[in-house]
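Project standup — Tuesday

K.O.: blocked on the structure for the chain from last sprint. Re-posting the sequence here as requested.
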Amino acid sequence: MGNLYPKKIAKIKESEKFKVFIWTLFDFANTSYSIVVVTFLYAVYFKQTIVGGEPVGDFYWSIGTSISMLITAFISPILGAIADYSAGKKRFLLIFTLLCIASTSLLYFVGKGDILLGILIFVLANVGFEAGLVFYDSFLPEITAPKNYGRVSGYGFAMGYLGSLTTLALVYPFISRQMIKESFPIAALVFLVFSLPLFFFLKDTRKKKIVDESFFMIGLSRVFNTITHLKNYRNLSLFLLSFFFYIEGVNTVIFFSGNYATTTLHFSLEQLIIFFLIVQSTAIVGSLLFGFIADSHGQKKSLVASLYVWVFTIIFAYLTSDHDGFVTKFLSGLFNSSVFEIEKNSFYVVGLLAGSVMGATQSTSRSLMSKLTPFDKKTEFFGFYSFFGKSSAILGPLVFGLVSFVTGAQRLAILTIGIFFIAGIIVLSFVEDD
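H.V.: unblocked you, prediction finished:
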């Protein structure tokens, strides 16, 4: 029989604590972009103002997200391999961070009818954000021991959601005055200020190697070598395939939750803020809790638990958004409320459930990836981790946007998300986690 008791949680060394704190500050910084641009304000601003509230706005938004993810998916493995060989993680992270910050600021100049410009600047910003994560994530094995991966990764996501709450507090005065465009430069400023400590204090541990050929060719050759020898990493390959499916669902929820709330449930901006406050608050707790569970009971068990919560959340969201459904009518009678009120209040519950596992799923995935990855190929393999994550985000939002556009009902598009989570659970069952 296996050990029925959880492993003893190891303490983080004093010498590591400062590095961990500086590393998590970057999570605090970059979520200012994700909450303001991807999840909340710009996502809603794009459909309601730039596209004029037309249903095709979902399709345009999905095109923008898919293009940015496609670009990131193809450049990430090569950049990761180059960074592994040249010890240039921090340099690449700086380049992509500045790209995201500059593009986010430029969104201020996008107005009604500027669909192409709005998509173009968003694509640049999102490429900067997503490609930067390849190099940021690959710092994890350098700042702490494998026994602490789950907890430290959880700290990062928790700090990130704390950054989201802080950013929402800063932009709220502008939102209340309907000054939505002004929030974009503010998010860029928060990203800039709180990302600086990483570039000043965190060091690359690998030494640069002197070579005769270009780093680009080295990157291509190393990626090709990794692909051809992928059979030697069967366990890691299975995890990446599972990750491809379930992160599809997570990304789609992130990209469309704001649009769904405003379009289908007719949330006001104030109600939307309350919704995202619920999501961010529960995400902090969930990231920390699942981080400890991952280190004490195993990353795989923690990850599977979070995915089951996701499946339940998707089913609940679908059932409680049906005007004539049994669930909404039953709850309406139980709480003596209108069906419309039940739908709105139920979505707050959806936010609570989704928030509790949103950071946890991504955090545990990052720590399990760190555990399964050969140390000398950490950035290169995190490039493949990014490739699977970003390439999956091409399909999920595109399917959601297309189903929403063709049927004229976002509610039906919700079901497509659940399929990806179930597929991820099935493949993950074959992954070994000692």
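K.O.: great, moving the ticket to review. The domain at 16-201+214-428 is CATH 1.20.1250.20 (Growth Hormone; Chain: A;). The mean pLDDT is 84.
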